[in-house]
Backbone:
């Protein structure tokens, strides 16, 4: 899971673009959702073996600008980008029973448009991420599984492992982001399957 996914999950549908450059103010520019998306996928999130209730879940999809030439030039003094090159879109997770949620995402979820001039900005689907908590309280651990775009488009199933000791919260750290691991062996021999629980994400393409 990369930083763009984490930002998309945490900020969900935040679209704001900050920064100024070349004497122009781009703070009012907003990336827009595709009003007529076609590439629809159903994402199912399932918690198994958690040491207690998992009653809260939210998520987001993220998208990257494919043709960076459509963006304003970098700041001439700092060399930094003056606008974001990615965007997040909320993934609404609907409860479907104990520890299970479903959501719809669109691979073509962002509108292609000339946001900064004459060149049309096009998009690449990055993937989705979710965060699951015991009750949703701020101090609780955020268990954060994810799927990248290739996994979603191939309609794969991704199992992420988490340590039960992180539930429901890390005593010394509030709102701890636990990314888990899809490689069970990374926990090593000291931890048995009884010490772990899983969050599974499944993708299924839905006909338009």
Residues:
């Amino acid at each position: 899971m990369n930083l763009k996914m984490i930002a998309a999950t945490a900020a969900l549908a935040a679209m704001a673009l900050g920064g100024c450059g070349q004497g122009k103010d781009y703070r009012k520019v907003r990336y827009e959702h595709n009003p007529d998306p076609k590439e629809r996928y159903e994402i199912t999130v399932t918690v198994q073996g958690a040491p207690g209730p998992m009653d809260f879940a939210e998520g987001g999809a993220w998208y990257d600008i494919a043709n960076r030439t459509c963006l304003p030039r970098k700041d001439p003094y700092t060399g930094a980008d003056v606008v974001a090159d990615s965007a997040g879109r909320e993934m609404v997770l609907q409860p479907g029973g104990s520890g299970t949620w479903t959501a719809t995402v669109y691979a073509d979820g962002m509108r292609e448009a000339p946001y900064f001039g004459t060149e049309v900005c096009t998009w690449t689907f990055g993937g989705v991420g979710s965060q699951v908590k015991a009750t949703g309280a701020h101090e609780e651990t955020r268990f954060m599984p994810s799927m990248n775009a290739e996994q979603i488009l191939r309609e794969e199933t991704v199992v992420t492992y988490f340590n039960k000791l992180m539930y429901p919260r890390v005593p010394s750290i509030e709102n701890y982001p636990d990314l888990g691991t899809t490689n069970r062996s990374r926990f090593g021999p000291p931890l048995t399957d009884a010490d772990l629980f899983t969050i599974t994400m499944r993708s299924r393409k839905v006909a338009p």
